[in-house]
Design a protein that fits this description.
- This protein has one helix and two strands.
- The chain is mainly alpha-helical.
- The protein folds into two domains: 30 residues; 37 residues.
- Strands 1-2 form a two-stranded antiparallel ribbon.
- β1 and β2 form a beta hairpin.
- The longest helix has 44 residues.
- The protein is elongated.
Length: 76
């Protein structure tokens, strides 16, 4: 019979045969090296997401400037 437990990262239900979480990919029953690789990958993904958010904010600002300039040129 399979025992059920939860992933320590996302609380997704796992069974006793699962090495990796099917939801977040955490190596719940993996070795220390696999867990460190997972943590490093999460840090990189968060960093990339933060950088993408900053770039998106810059694009929004640029689009607003273009809209204002277009409206002003249409008025004059």
């Amino acid at each position: 019979m399979l025992e059920l437990f939860e992933c320590s990262k996302c609380n997704f239900p796992l069974n006793s045969q699962d090495v990796f979480c099917n939801n977040c990919g955490y190596p719940e029953r993996g070795n220390q090296e696999q867990k460190e690789i997972y943590e490093d990958e999460i840090k990189v993904k968060k960093s990339n997401a933060t950088q993408a958010d900053k770039e998106l904010d810059n694009v929004r600002i640029l689009l607003k400037i273009i809209i204002v300039l277009t409206l002003l040129s249409g008025v004059f």
